[in-house]
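TEACHING EXERCISE
Course module: macromolecular assemblies
Task: Read the component lines below, then compare them to the predicted structure of the full complex.
Student: A.B.
Group: 4
Components provided:
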Amino acid sequence: MKMSEKWVYLFKEGNAKMKSRLGGKGANLAEMTTLDLPIPPGFTLTTKACLEYYNNDKSLPDGCEEQIDRALAETEKMTGKKFGDKKNPLLVSVRSGAPISMPGMMDTVLNLGLTDEVVEGIIESTGDKRFVFDVYRRFIQMFSDIVLKVPLGKFEKVLESVKKEEGAEFDKDISPKGYERIVNEYKSIVKREAKRPFPSDPREQLLLTINAVFESWNNKRAITYRKINNIPDSLGTAVNVQTMVFGNLGEDSATGVAFTRNPADGENHLYGEYLTNAQGEDVVAGIRTPKSIDELKNENFKAYTELAKTCRLLERHYRDTQDVEFTIERFKLWMLQTRTGKRTALAAVKIAVDMVEEGLITKEEALKRVETRQIDMLLHPMIDPKAEVDPVAKGLPASPGAATGRVVFEPEDAVELNKRKEPSILVRFETSPEDIAGMHACEGILTQRGGMTSHAAVVSRAMGKPCIVGCESISVSYAKNEFRVKNLVVKNGDTITLDGVTGRVMMGEVPKVTASLKGEFGKLLGYADEVRRLGVRANADTPEQARVAHGFGAEGIGLCRTEHMFFGEERIRAMREMILTDNIEQRKKALSKLLPMQKEDFKKFFHEMAGLPVIIRTLDPPLHEFLPKKPKQIRELAKEMNIGEDRLVQKISSLSELNPMLGHRGCRLGISYPEITEMQARAIFEAACEVKKEGKEVLAEVMIPVVNEAREFENQKEIVDKVAKNVMSEYGMKIKYMVGIMIELPRACLTADLIAKKAEFFSFGTNDLTQTTFGFSRDDVGKILPDYIEKGILKFDPFQRIDEEGMGDLIKMGIEKGRSTNPKLEIGICGEHGGEPHSIDFCQRAGMNYVSCSPYRVPVARLAAAHAVLRQKEAKNQ
Amino acid sequence: MKMSEKWVYLFKEGNAKMKSRLGGKGANLAEMTTLDLPIPPGFTLTTKACLEYYNNDKSLPDGCEEQIDRALAETEKMTGKKFGDKKNPLLVSVRSGAPISMPGMMDTVLNLGLTDEVVEGIIESTGDKRFVFDVYRRFIQMFSDIVLKVPLGKFEKVLESVKKEEGAEFDKDISPKGYERIVNEYKSIVKREAKRPFPSDPREQLLLTINAVFESWNNKRAITYRKINNIPDSLGTAVNVQTMVFGNLGEDSATGVAFTRNPADGENHLYGEYLTNAQGEDVVAGIRTPKSIDELKNENFKAYTELAKTCRLLERHYRDTQDVEFTIERFKLWMLQTRTGKRTALAAVKIAVDMVEEGLITKEEALKRVETRQIDMLLHPMIDPKAEVDPVAKGLPASPGAATGRVVFEPEDAVELNKRKEPSILVRFETSPEDIAGMHACEGILTQRGGMTSHAAVVSRAMGKPCIVGCESISVSYAKNEFRVKNLVVKNGDTITLDGVTGRVMMGEVPKVTASLKGEFGKLLGYADEVRRLGVRANADTPEQARVAHGFGAEGIGLCRTEHMFFGEERIRAMREMILTDNIEQRKKALSKLLPMQKEDFKKFFHEMAGLPVIIRTLDPPLHEFLPKKPKQIRELAKEMNIGEDRLVQKISSLSELNPMLGHRGCRLGISYPEITEMQARAIFEAACEVKKEGKEVLAEVMIPVVNEAREFENQKEIVDKVAKNVMSEYGMKIKYMVGIMIELPRACLTADLIAKKAEFFSFGTNDLTQTTFGFSRDDVGKILPDYIEKGILKFDPFQRIDEEGMGDLIKMGIEKGRSTNPKLEIGICGEHGGEPHSIDFCQRAGMNYVSCSPYRVPVARLAAAHAVLRQKEAKNQ
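Instructor-supplied answer key:
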């Protein structure tokens, strides 16, 4: 079996589809070879050879060496050169190339095949001593570093001291003599450090290098890169052995990289850089400043024309923007690599839409070309990628975008600064609903505690405001009005910058860039709308958010949290009156003060979303969340309410709970105090009637939260239906409405068949459902999750991405059971997961009707919903 | 359809199996009639007629009146008497009789058929004016109370004033003249209060009474009783119309009740009470103190012998102890009722086992005869026989057990104290059905009046509550809120102790002991062990509890909560040291102090449970539970630990959590601090080795709590296995052990297949699982549950009884998934539900291997597990 395995492929034996076997680079070199492009001949060792190398106690598998020898002979034949030959020596590069690109993570050796003898021969035949020694010393250094593990630093001083002695500014200014000295010094360093002489047999050089490249698959940075990018360790890397061509043979030679379109903005023109008289690594290393590709047109028109032609050909052939490496050896163009060009979010959108309009790709292909996270980036100001940043702390990137402002610790201070149009960053231990005004007024939020779905995270995402949470390395002191991070003390009023994309915190201001929504962006989302089957609604707590969401294409409101409306100054007072009385008449009186305010808000929602469904959730949080916690606030409130401070303290303490998340909240409140549900229902239906009177279509959906039992829902539905009937008869009109539940508890899934007999819709509140399914408190999980992910116990944060393995089954069960008794049941999701692409994919597969997410994620959700359809199609075709 | 329905059955047309249609009383009267026993003729209106009465706008269904008339005519024929006839009038009793006995909850009218004319006729024929008027005034009073709703109190003064005038001590001493005056006064009261004359047509009397008895199905106390006893409201009551016989025709007449065996201790002899020259209600009302049935032997040997014979016959026929009512009318015995005799827990066990040994019933029947809650009662405390007691009064020992509490006189006060978890003793002149809520709320009942079959006695026996009745030496004053006994005044709020076994009343608290498994009790549990398939283990946190559990028959430890061992003074200090350090070395040092203490505890467990499995759970609660909360304690601790108070406060606050139930606890601690799990595993295995060395078999099971993901478990199992291996090699021996998980979170059920690949056992921690499935915090749910149960939203407290409808599915899923990847998986339950019979029944059906419960519930669980098997058998046979 092993005998018959093909470990080595000549370039001409492969093609672009063989990526998993030949790696990306190898497959593309093969493809280009078959396209008759100018590719220096060579061959590829397969990824399987790499895996076998590890299985085989780190040695090449049986038959591999023979196949290498045969391929080498073939390469010699094609080039007319010979390995180790003095007169016409073959030199090769040896490069890694995994099936998924891992740029710079693994090792490469160039100019392999040089020995003292070969060098002498080349000098004889070319007379270019300087060039040959330069190449030789590069080879020795690279080979020693990668194969013999001699640290690069050991060689550093030699080059510098020679340059200094000779007064040479650049490497190319060193004299041939100087290079010779360098080479000799290098060789004695190798002998000293590696305790062996530098190998003088090219075949030995080659075999040692191939082994070393295989080894580099498991170097530390490669492992880390794979972990970060979710690349399986089981892929292995291929190794490409290719005839060297030289961009450093003089001013008629050059080397460079090019993109078939501009990777920054997507404009359709050749884009790239090159260096004259240099080898490829010099461009990447950034030691010399390369020239723009446009200059090549003047310097070497023929080569430029051929390059431009080749690039066009490659783009047409691959039907995507290519990122190519080329070398010009004495006016002759050689292509060394082509691969799909990485691009910015902006470019990705433009290129995808342009290519559709050029007829190059289909709309579906265009959609696949743009990642959802790119859409997300386009919607927020970002730290300028070119800016130098010096982070002082790092937390969880809870809401993307960058923000700069003065540090404040009290929400009131943010409000104060906002009045003076001064930007602020609200820094809190953690936030709570009372901080909402401050959160609204600031530019960005930083908390010491909390996870990706903590209060701060959720609210700031809803606001589209940069936010970093769980920044445990800072230590906030409200008393001192400062936070500390290591030895640094950051005071109230100091300026900091948050990077919500990465979670970095910087002192002072950092330059930012904003991408505006160009025409292509809208077009791309239009393609997505054509493809997707999931509706996309938005979670919005204020009419302003609803407006933003509508602008981003939301097809309704999936969650309006009414309690967020209670935090205005006048409202919280009425709310507190309602909570603090034990007397039902007084409670009703307080509620009647809230009624017109809620009604006004709902009217704005119905106006904004005319003709679209609006889900309004009845009161959800435990009542103690509306009461003050600090002695001073309590004292003030007692005075304001004209009740004894003691009584107030007692009342607050009687409402407090050990585990409020599992406490007296959601429909449990509405069951204890039916008059609250009554008031809210009345506000909804009066608003609906009044808006309808103005000629707008209203589709109201009343959602009952925290239901775990059908009879809870029925209790609340009865109240809503009764109020609806009364209000509609008072106004003399009919309103289309539904009553349904928010599914936040496992038992609601388990008894969904019973609940769905009466409920008209289900909306999965996956934040809370994650809490109870996992037994993780959102507010406390910051202590656990990072450690869990670090240790590999959890693969991701289940508050960010739906846990399909466990909770997914519960959701599917809820959907199946629900539809079993009510086939017309409308099913959606309104947890934070509703804007997360993996989770949206799950929602599509689970057969939901829509997803609902924060306003700024609506475009992301539209694209993700389209992706989900395309992925399902692909899965079906396989 | 309605025309053909049979609403009325003559006694001779029915039998004992027709309880659901004829009610318990009616079915048994029919059965006795077919046995040719001396039963006064009569007929029964069906329960369906009652339901139809309610459906039919509270009037009798079509055809019913005609059927009544026909049955009445048949009864007249059988008795030779005629309704309303002056010469030979038929008088009847009209009694309720539901399918499930609800003693005293509904209404009864006796002596129906009396009118002025009939009375005159009887006086003429018997010459016994006193008797006739006594009967007549009873009838007027009863009928007016029940049918015409004239309050009983309205009649009270008349009787008392006549007695006073005539100087009569008892009712029977009133002169015929006096009775005539009473009757006339009664009739004018009726006319005044009911605004109608007393009906003079016997047929009208009968129809009105039947309606009134149907009405009484829905009186308040009947509804309450059904709620307490889980009797469906949909059953309805039958009505029995039966020829009156008179126990009040003179000294040759009597009426009484008898049990075929002693209902207090189960001894096999005729037991009962009777009153000479009285009607049945007099015995139950407890107004006169009745004589023991043994005296009847002397007073009326023939009647006694016939009664004894009839009782034996009935017991053999029904194969169970009977509770009969009889009347002797001029030496002739009449049976008025038979039913299964209620009995104390003690009696139930003895009777069941005796009957097995007598060959009357099978062991399985014996098991079915004893309710699990009776076993529970037997385990309730009794007065310590060695305690010196100083009784202040002595009454009849109506229901066994000992109880201590504060004296209350009003049922509402008992309810009030119960809310504050304060035990109370309800002291009443006598009790009546209206007192039921208070009787439920108190710990024990003491009445001044009444016999062993008085209301207080019957109800308290059913409730398993200590009760002393007929304690004539006390004198209760509701007005003064006190009772006197000799010179002693006992006030509301004073503490007393009742001994329900002997009838003694003591001041203050008296030491108590709990029953052990001897005699018939042990035999019965032996039968249970033969039948049951579920193992029964105990939850025990201390070696002492393990010892108690073992004594009760526990077959191992299902849950040993190791953290409870950390609260001793020396231990908590080491624990706090461990928690408060940030340094791993210091933490290990603190843990090493805890190691020998834990080891000693575990050794005691292994000793006690040699040869039986012992499940030890690793540390579960969040660490902040071990730290002090009050400023003073914190100050002391800071001093003790020699750290700054500020630092301590900060540390405590950094450990605090918003929702600790969903916080950093269970295996999450063991993952953060592997050294804790290491220490605990070491303590377990060192203990195991040392006990094994002494020649005892050790079966250790290490349980990892709060697991929601297979990799969490694997992380902890690795630690346990490594320590086990090391310790076993240090001691040079092998210990049989398993590592498994506690299933407390929905996700553990959802991913049970993945977890079971490595886990060797599952133990369902249903307390926590209920919390997350429902989203109810155990600590906070007190605000919600009572209201939910009151409103019918939940049918029972899911923390007491497993919620099969919702959580049951999750548990079944966990079991199925678990066994799918590990068929040998051992599965049990260790939540509080493990000792609750309905839940045990579920565990049997769900296919668990064992249940584990608190030590004192082990006998209950043994019986419940047997019941579960029998129930499953029955279900299969149906």
